TrEMBL record:
Family matches, as InterPro entries: EgtD (IPR035094), EgtD_Methyltrsf_superfamily (IPR051128), MeTrfase_dom (IPR019257), MeTrfase_EgtD-like (IPR017804), SAM-dependent_MTases_sf (IPR029063)
Protein known as: Dimethylhistidine N-methyltransferase
SUPFAM superfamilies xref list: S-adenosyl-L-methionine-dependent methyltransferases (SSF53335)
Domain Histidine-specific methyltransferase SAM-dependent: 5-307
Pfam family, one: Methyltransf_33
Originating species: Mongoliibacter ruber
UniProt GO BP: methylation
Transmembrane segments: none
Molecular function terms, GO-annotated: methyltransferase activity
Keywords of the record: Methyltransferase, Transferase
Amino acid sequence: MNQFLKDVIKGLTSDQKTLPSKYFYDEKGSRIFQEIMAAEEYYLPECEVEILQNSSKAILSEISAHELDIVELGAGDGSKTVIFLKEAFKTGKSLTYIPMDISPEILDVNQNLVHAQIPDLLINPIPGDYSVTSELLKERNKPKLILFMGSNIGNFPGEKAVEFIQFVNGLMQEGDFFLMGVDLKKNPHVIRAAYNDKEGVTKRFNLNLLERINRELSGDFDLSAFEHYGVYNPLTGSALSFLVSIKAQTVHISGQEIEFEKFETIHTEISQKYSLKELDKIGSQTGFIWDKHFTDSREFFSLSLFRK
């Protein structure tokens, strides 16, 4: 049984049915996510780009090291990071950019894009699961700035976020820096709209997970029998995505039967939002002695800089 099938069966036979959000991103899912990124309601990319354009110089001024490894976890295509790298290159520091991603193909895209705009920047891509490949960073003695952009920390529920930041801290030496993209708490209507766009792109993205199970695991999900539901809880700061079975039904996956009650839910994703005070507290909990927040003009998003 492959890992995808194991995770699907385990999730759908739990008391609260779940599907891991990492399986959203097959080829079709990745294309739909690009549509989400361009949606009018999805404010996050625009806010992060604004900060990178307006505050990269100020962020870099906090880092005095003349040599610097800029390490990016889950680097993706580099299209936003290159804004920061251009500013870093202007400082005259001796830089090495180390993008890390599970996909070798996306790292090829990243390297080509960054090289096209900064031909003289040294790039050392590391493909693979960075929870494993990050051990390679410990062999390098240069000062480090570790990047974790795009509000990816929001995909870690509760204590898992703290554990991840502690993991990052463990890769660092005293005086190293960690720059993390964080979606901030704001008007709940703004957040809820971002996960329930009027064009229905988020709905297609969520349902594609069931379509992928049909394609790859011999599933027989009837997509018309499930509805997307996105909700935001301003008390906890959690934006949650669900698929709702709108009737009682039986689904088959690789020969196994999964029963759904009418209106039973599958939890597919969490996107956690934070206040700046909460980020200060998490920083001190996870072994950082200092932090500073750089926000967009509406204070919707932060690039938060932590020092070990």
